[in-house]
Design a protein that fits this description.
This protein is mainly α. The chain has seven helices and no strands. The protein binds zinc ion. The site of zinc ion has 6 residues, from loops.
Length: about 100
Amino acid sequence: MFPNKEERLQMEYTNPEKGMVQFLSDHGPYPEKLHRLGLRNSPECECGVIGSPKQMVLYCPLVEHFKEERSILKTCNVVDIVRNPEQYNVLEQLNVEISKIH
Ligand SMILES: [Zn+2]
């Protein structure tokens, strides 16, 4: 999934923050994950949908930030996002916002 070593060294902006690590590893403040850990009664987000990382980042109506950027992210796969500094930063910031909700 990740670029090779040479490409990785050129990606100076790629200094994984907590939010990105959480998104990629599924070990973040997502209702689905918290439910699996016994920390929530339901895997559903307050919006009524199963709160998976992808659902929370791309579709949850409770995350009101970066609406325009989110619509762009929907057309990308994870490799595209990791290779694009702009999209990478949007995804990182979205995860920060999600952390504040749950
Ligand atoms: Zn939601």
